[in-house]
Predict the 3D structure of the following.
Amino acid sequence: MTLPVSSPDPGTVRVLTADGSFAPTPAAEPYLALIDALSDAELEGFYRDMAVIRAFDVQATNLQRQGQLALWPPSFGQEAAQVGSARAARPQDHFFPSYREHVVARIRGVDPIDIIRVMRGLTHGGWNPFDPKNGNVHVYTLVLGSQTLHATGLAMGLAFDERSGTGDPERDEAVIVYYGDGASSQGDIHEAMVFAASYRTPQVFFLQNNQWAISVPVATQSRAPLYKRGEGYGMPSIAVDGNDVLASWAVTRLALEEARAGEGPRAIEALTYRMGAHTTSDDPTKYRTSEEEDSWRARDPIDRMRNYLLSRGASEAFFADVEAESAAVAEDIRIRTGELGGLETDAMFDHVYSDPHPLVEEQRQWFAGYEASFDGEQEAS
Amino acid sequence: MPFSRALNAGLRAALAGSDRVLLMGEDIGPLGGVFRVTEGLQAEFGDRRVLDTPLAESGIVGTAIGLAMAGFRPVCEIQFDGFVFPAFDQITSQLAKQTYRHEGALQLPVVIRIPYGGHIGAVEHHQESPEAYFTHTPGLRVVSPSTPNDAYWMIQDAIASPDPVIFLEPKAKYWQKGEVDTSARALPLHASRVVRRGTDVTLVGHGAMVSVLLQAAAIAESEGTSCEVVDVRSLSPVDYGPILDSVRRTGRMVYAQEAPGFTSLGSEIAATVMERAFYALEAPVLRVSGFDTPFPPAKLEGAYLPDADRILEAVDRSLTY
Ligand SMILES: Cc1ncc(C[n+]2csc(CCOP(=O)(O)OP(=O)(O)O)c2C)c(N)n1
């Protein structure tokens, strides 16, 4: 069995080493000015985002174990790729996540309880991406790769309507779409790249290569580094250390700016690692070694940023504050999950169509009568 | 033995029986599939007999077609019902039509295993019953075992079939135990079977619904109504013999299925029974189905899926004619 690709090649953009020292790779050169301009508050914000979402993620995993959720797909280990890319966008940008981008959703304003509701089996989605409070974050999909075509279509629409490429970065809109190394084998993603390149969409394809598609190593999906595929479709493509939040941020920032300026789509491969199980139904001990897991734990994105911040003189008070906030967010989600009510069965018949549909309405009526017949029995007995 | 182990044993027998048999799918190797149906088979037969494929359903089925052309007998695993659709084009436009297109010169002995149906409280795309899409496609055979013994034998028969077979595995049954007689097959692949005798109403269904029908029949019995239960087993072609015989004796029939009712397997079987046994019927054939909505969020699946009560309500309605 071939081991997954683990060490970034020299072409990979990275600024922080595993121990948190600032040591840019040659490929990081074009991004250093951007990173230099980041304020202390922004840097600390990256750390805060990552730490808070990890606490949320641990809490959600526990809630699943306690039978509160049907399923949980942890984001454990992928925080830097997600925070970096999400913070790189502008408010008007559009997000098409897969099913693991919890911190992306949170950063853009989606209430994490909305994700919990999906995984608790109360809804298939339910939030409106275009409601300003949800920051243009589209609903999760579980069909791998589908969303890349939707993202491309939306980006085509932006281009056709001249909502991008006007030269005003404050107004021009761009799209970012997330998918995994496994998903990259799906035909939809190849077709999305063809359309995106043909129509020069204002779009970034953001691949998180976390080394595994459930139990299948990335070598089964691709024998060439995945970022190189973008080149084949005619778009500039970059590999970044996805456990380095600064590099992830800078690479996405520039790619989005170029895309929004009308220069066409960009592809990014973030090299990262899923430190936990694929979902709460998975058992990683069946397919990977603890040595491999340990080697990646040593590259933990949160520890790395923490060390960097410490080296820059971040205060104990700051870390204490983040810890308190993390605990509060986790506790809040635990409480609110417990408070989530059930569902009226009638909800099943809602929104199948936008216009009333006689068949569905007939079944709604029938079912209401059917259920009421039991109430009668209970009263009678 | 449990249903999933029976499938595992059937697959093992087929792999051992012919080195042309291949298993292919996502996560079927070291993990043994997300339902562990292929557990241990890669270790036993090697990674050229049991292939962990790239994550691409169209690719799995499309290459299985080519492998079959090269003389292999591929058995594809689709991880969940809702993920068969990326492969839908390859299944319906290619796999189903090769033999016809080649005027019989080519056979495509490809099996596509699909865990299907509800009762497991899962998220979207993990609980669907897509059988009607496949039964509507000429050139495909579609079967669904409901017991471990059938699982063991039917998978071997499906692999032996010269035609493409869509093999629907009711997820709700994976952990259910039952006797497996490895010495003799009970019935041919395309036979339906009476699983309970009765005289007043014929209950018909497939997959996980069979045990719900049996449950309903037991309750009906205690209320003085005798129900016969028929397991369709083969969804295409349907073996109408036992169904019609039964209906001719009882005069009444209820079909139950998890899939939405509109243009469903139950609709087809109901129409055929009305055509062929019209004078024996004392009531219209009734259908109990999932509703004509997408499979709802998990918290509503109990309301969506036909249960014994919904079946008994239809039995009562049938008896009022
Ligand atoms: C079309 C389709 N096929 C199969 C699945 C089942 N499945 C869910 S996640 C997954 C692995 C995905 O791996 P990857 O794309 O690398 O993303 P990751 O989960 O590692 O983030 C599989 C096979 C699915 N959701 N959709």
